[in-house]
Amino acid sequence: MTARRLDGRELAASLRAQAALAVDAAAANGIAVRLAIVVATRDEGAAWYVRSLGSAAARLGIECQIADLGAAAAPGQIAAELARLSADPQVHGIVLQSPVPAGATAAELAEAIDPAKDVDGANPVSLGRLAVGRPAFAPATAQAVVRLLDCYEVQLSGRRAVVVGRSAVVGKPAAALLLARHATVTICHSRTPDLGAVTSQAEVLVVAAGRPGLIAAAHVRPGAVVVDAGTSAAADGSLVGDVDPAVEGVAGALSPVPGGLGPVTTAGLLLATTVAATKGDVGTVR
Amino acid sequence: MTARRLDGRELAASLRAQAALAVDAAAANGIAVRLAIVVATRDEGAAWYVRSLGSAAARLGIECQIADLGAAAAPGQIAAELARLSADPQVHGIVLQSPVPAGATAAELAEAIDPAKDVDGANPVSLGRLAVGRPAFAPATAQAVVRLLDCYEVQLSGRRAVVVGRSAVVGKPAAALLLARHATVTICHSRTPDLGAVTSQAEVLVVAAGRPGLIAAAHVRPGAVVVDAGTSAAADGSLVGDVDPAVEGVAGALSPVPGGLGPVTTAGLLLATTVAATKGDVGTVR
What we know:
2 copies of one chain form a homodimer.
Chain A: E1 4-5, H1 9-28, E2 34-39, H2 44-60, E3 63-68, H3 75-87, E4 93-96, H4 106-109, H5 124-131, H6 140-151, E5 160-164, H7 171-180, E6 184-188, H8 195-199, E7 204-207, E8 225-228, E9 232-233, E10 239-240, E11 253-254, H9 261-279
Parallel strand pairs in A: 1-11, 2-3, 2-4, 5-6, 5-7, 7-8, 8-11
Antiparallel strand pairs in A: 9-10
Helix pairs in contact in A: 1-9, 6-7, 6-9
C-alpha cells in the first residue's frame, strides 16, 4: 500500500486565486492591500521565508513592507514597531518573523499586534478567541492543517486526532481547531514517555515537532491520515519533514514535505491579509 | 480497594488563610479589596453561588458588590457594566456570573473585563495567555484542579491526562494547565464515540461534563487519579458530580462532590482577587 499524497499545491493555487479576487475588489475601493513583516533576526531560514513571502505577495498585488530591526533589536523596540504598524491605516496584516532576540518571546511581543491585523495569529488573544470559538485569525500553519484535511475531505468529527508538538504557532492552535471540528484531540510533546504508543492511536496524526524522522512507520496506525508540519533543513539544503518516508507504506494518506502544508500556509497567510484589508475586521478564516 | 479521598477543604482553608493575609497587607496600604459580580440571570443555582461567594468574601474582609442587571439585560448593557467596573480603581476583581442572557456568550461579553481584574479567567485573552505560558488568571475551577492535584502530590509530568468536557471555563483551561505541567493531554467531549475507551487510558482523569454518573467504574483505569468537576443538582437538592460512586472501588484517588473541587474553587477565586488588588497586575496564580 502507498499512502495517498496530500498535495497542497492545488489548494494553495485556489487560495491564491481567492486572494487575487479580494485584492482586485479592494483596489476597486481604492485600497492597496499591504502586509508588514517585522524581522529581528539574522537567521538564514527566516530570511529565505521572508523573501519568498514577499515575492508571493508581489505576484498577487499585495504590497509587502519589511521592517528589519536587526538581530540586536531590544524587545521594547520590536513591540513599539508592532504597535506603530497596528495604528497605521495603510497596513492590513502584520507578521512578526521568528526567531525573536533573546530576552523576549514571540507571544509576549505579539500582544502589540492589533488582533484585526494579526493575520498569522501570533497574539495570544487570537489563540484564546479561537479556543472559545470567537472569530480570530489562526496561525497560518495551524489553519493550513485543517484546510488541507478539508480539501481531501478527511472526516474530523468523532475521530481520534493526535498532535505531536505544543508550540504556540502550530501544535496548540492546530489542537484547538481540530477540537472545534469535534475531533477527540491528544497533544503529545517532548515529555511524552512513549510517543509511539500515543501516535499509533491516531486516526488523524499531525506532526509539528521540528525533528526530522521523529515519526517512523511503527508509530503510525495503518490507514491513518498523517499531516507533516515539520520543516527542517537537511544537510544538502533541502527541506525535510518530521515523518520518515517509510510511513508512506503504512499511512492511508500523507502530506509531503515540501509541497504539502508549506504552500497552503503561505497562500493562506496572504488570503488572511486580504480578509483583514477588505472586511476591516477580524475574520474566521477557514 | 477504596480510592484515596482528595478532600479539598483543608487546601481551601489554607488558600483562605493566604487571602486573609493579603487582605490585611492591602488594608495596611489603605486598600480595601473589592470583588464585583455581574449577574444577568434568575437562575437559582447562580443565585445560590453568588450568595455563597459573597459571604465567603465577607468572612475574609473582601468587599463584594453585586451588579444585578436582571435576566432581560441586553448584551451591550452587560459589556458596558463590565467595562465600567474595569475602569473603576476601587474594584480589583470582576466575575461575570453564568448563565448570560440569550444573544450573547459569556466569552464574548468577558472581553470587556480588564485581564488584570479577570480573576475567574473568563476573558479569552486570559485563556490565550495561559495557553502560551504568559501570566494570566486561570478560570477558578480549572486552577483548582491543578491545585488539588498538587496538594496531594500527584505527578503530572509525563503522565497521560484525559479531560472530559471542553467548556471555556473548565475543560479547555484545565487541559492548558495540565499541558503546561508536561502531561500528555487528551480532551474528550460529547462527540467522542467511545468515551470509556479514552478515559480508561487516563492516569489522571478530570471530568467536567455536567452529567451526573457519566463516568462509571468500567471507564476508569485501576489506580487512576480522578478529579470530579461536575456539579449538578440532584432531585433532593443536593450536589452531585459526574463520577459514579462505584468508581471509588477502582480509582486510586477520587475527589468527592461536594467537598472536593468546590471549596478550592471558591477560595482560589478570592485569593486571586487579593492578588489582583495587591500586585495591581495580572498574576500567574498556582
